[in-house]
Amino acid sequence: VQLQASGGGLVQAGASLRLSCVVSGRTDRGYIIGWFRQAPGKEREFVAAVTPSGVSRFYADSVKGRFTISRDGAKNTVSLQMNSLKPEDTAVYSCAAGPLTILRGTDYKIERMYNYWGQGTLVTVSS
Questions:
Q1: Residue 107 DSSP SS3
Q2: Could you tell me if 95 and 5 are in contact, meaning their C-beta atoms sit under 8 angstroms apart?
Q3: Cα dihedral across residues 109, 115, 116, 117: positive or negative
């Protein structure tokens, strides 16, 4: 499975950005797709995740109400719509694919539970 993230950029606080993650390869299996981010000098943290059907979505408290994750099965694309961006959202954002078993409890929030990772895309929010 390969993942390709895109859509990052430099924006001002309060603006919006939409990140995309194109998933290719053995996509016939159902995968949880998650977005993680890593700010300078900090550990990578969970942002959002979505199930194969796109029905169930999960968010970190810090982005709930501002970010929306969605999945287009026909295009094998997972998007992360980010609204009301804050300077603290500045980070490298990466998408990852993990097995359905990570829906158990809150395993979907743990980066080591994901098997496949795409390269990151940088989001910079200026104040």
A1: helix
A2: yes
A3: positive
Cα(105)–Cα(8) distance, integer angstroms: 30
DSSP characters for 35-87?
EEEE-TTS--EEEEEE-TTS--EEE-TTTTTTEEEEEEGGGTEEEEEE-S--G
Other beta carbons less than 10 A from residue 20's beta carbon: 16
- C-alpha–C-alpha distance, residues 79 and 68, integer Å: 8
**Closest C-alpha to 117, from 42, 31, 59:** 31
Phi, psi angles (nearest 5°) of residue 76? 50, 45
Tokens of 97: 């694919």
Supply φ then ψ for residue 115, to 5 degrees: -90, -30
Cβ proximity of 66 and 82 under 8 Å: yes
Query: In this predicted model, what pLDDT tens digit does every residue of 59-108 receive, in sequence order?
Result: 999 999 999 999 987 879 999 999 999 999 999 999 999 999 999 899 99
